[in-house]
Amino acid sequence: MPPFIRIQNISKKYGVLQAVDAVSFDLEKGELFSLLGPSGCGKTTLLRILAGFEVPTSGLVEIDGQNMANVDPADRPVNIMFQNYALFPHMSVFNNIAYGLQRASLAKNEINHRVEDLLKLVHLTGMGERKPATLSGGQRQRVALARALARRPKLLLLDEPLAALDKKLRSDTQFELVNIQEKLGTTFIVVTHDQEEAMTLSTRIGVMNEGQLVQLATPNEIYENPKTRFIADFVGDISFVPAKINRQDGDYWLMDAAVPIYAACEHNLEAGKSITLAIRPEKITLTPEASGKINEFPVRIDDWAFYGAGTQYRVTGPGGIKLKLFQSHNQPSNAQLRPDQIETGFIHFAPESIIILEDK
Amino acid sequence: MRRNVPFLVKLLAIIGFGILYVPVIMMMIYSFNKSKLVSVWAGFSTKWYKELWTDDILITALYKSVLIGISSATISTIFGLLIAIAFVRFASFRGRLFLSLVASAPLVMPEAVTGLSMLLLFIAMEASFGWPSGRGIDTIMIAHATFGMCFAAVVIQTRLRDMDKSLEEAARDLGGRQPFVFLSITFPLILPSIIAAWLLSFTLSFDDLVIASFVSGPGSSTLPIVIFSKIRLGVSPEINAVATLMILSISAFVILGSLLVLRRDGKK
Q1: By the number of CB atoms within 10 A of the CB, which of A216, A264, A267, B201 ranks highest?
Q2: Is the pLDDT reported for residue B268 higher than 60?
Q3: Counting one residue from A and one from B, how many pairs have CB atoms under 8 Å apart?
């Protein structure tokens, strides 16, 4: 059986600009997939190709076994929720949602019935007669979602669905979106530049940069095993340490950085090669005294910031290595190490928590 | 917010507006003059308005002006809308630069040039295929529609360019096809600018003297032509009355037009 959504070698060129560069991936039915990347990486162009607003220079899009080439946007089993929602300002909420159903020539009472169901789904029952201008940002977003779902698309595209909402509302809406997606079983593709949004929403993430799909994996995999320095840097906080591979030493590999660092690696490494070591802030532990563990060295605390759930530090180690670290307050914060009382300390981290990025 | 405006600026403003509006106000006042002499006040009277009402030449001219105004404004608006759509919705097409030059040239062309060239065209057309036979209401209408269309295009273009393009895309995405998308989404949203364009074209046509003088024929004198020819025989207070009515109706149109545009912009 062919995959539900098949995107094969899609490229789009605008003059000399390669907006999308040979992107291929398959999606299963009911997946919530995110396309993550900085602005200008080609993710929105890819979305517009899927919706049918742009014609790819080359490549193939198949939805449920049907080739989408030469299929008008009006006829695709695909609907899109625009970033600015694009609600029709001169129509009521009801008519906005009913627009696509009326185009499908459904019977009037069937349309009424479906719109009422959708209003209920997005918790806007009784708001049908309101005009979009009288709604709050969150309500408008839900109208846009209901309108995009009205035609029961096989694939729903969401362009930065949460970008226009404030932070508090965003997390509620996020869970709501996942709930609705699970309830309906529709395949979602979410385009976003917000890595947190991509991680919390999706089952799988495709990271894009400069028109290319650089990694496609689960959120967990992308966070723990980023393929390139770009992804490591783009997704979450991280510190980089340049190093050279020295030799295998027991279970670990010895790396020559400003200090010797032990790293775990499952495959064989080539001695003498220059690499970049990367480590997430929460994987580093800061203690006032040395404890004799592996990968331990003294640091000077340059800066710290209290976040409530934890404290973030910027430290400088031997040889001028700069690292970011995050100590979570798993004890009442005043019982732990007080950042305002110390200027130096010791850090250590497990060799398994180091990400080895092979320089290109 | 109160600001201290320097005395000189105030004075210049008063002089400026004075030069603009005092003659108009004087003219309006003198339209209620009892005397036949325009410059001597002899008491209040509305007799010139009554006389105007029974002046067949003026009433016929008014009727013709309104007829020409309505029809040429309608043609202008339709073509102006098409030009605006071409410019705003189609990024590149063959002859785009040429069309933009052609469509904006009449905005800056001296009216005498437009009028004369129209006249020559009509004569040449009549000589080669017999239409339009002679000059009359139809030729004035065509000439007015031609330059009104450029103004209409500018007004509608502004609004169309401001309109969010994703609204049309959303409509297409939801299964809408042209021309339905245009009629259900674009048209209602740019309607105020279409009305404003119509009012502007009507006003331009209604008070045009120069172009109409070139392309009018016997029996097709518009109101401005009749007024102008009457003045050459000596100014009658009746003319003041006509002019007062024209100014009031045109102001009403202009204010209505601006309000429509403002209301739309204020909503955004």
Answers
A1: B201
A2: no
A3: 57
CATH number (domain holding residue A319): 2.40.50.100
At A215, the pLDDT band (50, 70, 90 cuts) reads very high
Cα B193–B197–B199 angle (5° rounding)? Answer: 115
Nearest Cα neighbor of A56 from A8, A6, A16 is A8
Q: Name every residue whose Cβ is closer than 8 Å to that of residue A246 and which is 6 or more positions away in sequence.
A: A253, A254, A255, A256, A260, A271
- Tell me the shortest Cα–Cα distance from A115 to chain B, in angstroms: 14
Q: What are phi and psi of A88, to 5 degrees?
A: -75, 110
Q: For residue A160, give the CATH number of its domain.
A: 3.40.50.300
Longest dimension (CA), chain A: 76
Interface of B with A in 150-169 (CB under 8 A): 164, 166-167, 169
On whether any CB of chain B is under 8 Å from the CB of A51, the answer is yes
With DSSP H G I counted as helix, E B as strand and the rest as coil, what are the percentages for chain A, rounded to 5? Answer: 30, 35, 35
pLDDT at residue A75 tops 90: yes
Are the C-beta atoms of A257 and A240 separated by less than 8 Å?
Answer: no
Counted domains in chain A: 2
Note whether A346 and A299 are same-domain residues. yes
**B169, closest residue in chain A (CA to CA):** A53
Q: Report d(CA A191, CA A207) in Å as an integer.
A: 10
Q: Which two tokens stand for residue B243?
A: 């002019």
Q: Where are the domains of chain B?
A: 67-267
Q: Which residues of A touch B193 (CB under 8 A)?
A: none
Nearest by CB to A79, from B166, B173, B184: name it: B173
Homologous superfamily (CATH) of B67-267 is MetI-like (1.10.3720.10)
Neighboring chain B residues of A52 at a CB cutoff of 8 Å: 173
Residues of B in contact with A68 (CB under 8 A): none
- Strands (E) across chain A are located at 5-14, 17-27, 32-36, 58-63, 66-67, 78-81, 155-159, 187-192, 204-209, 212-217, 239-249, 252-256, 260-263, 274-279, 285-287, 296-306, 310-316, 322-328, 344-348, 355-358
- Of A170, A200, A233, the position where a domain reaches its end is A233
Its pTM stands at: 0.83
State mean pLDDT over B155-161.
Answer: 92
Nearest to B148 by CA among B44, B68, B226, B242: B68
Residues A207 and A247 occupy one common structural domain: no
**CB neighbours of residue A313 within 10 Å:** 23
ipTM of the complex model: 0.84
Whether A151 and A270 share a structural domain: no
- Domain-terminating residue out of A190, A206, A233: A233
B-chain residues near A73 (CB < 8 A):
169, 172-173
Q: Does B2 touch chain A (CB under 8 A)?
A: no
Chain B residue numbers with beta carbons less than 8 Å from the beta carbon of A99 are 171, 174, 176, 184
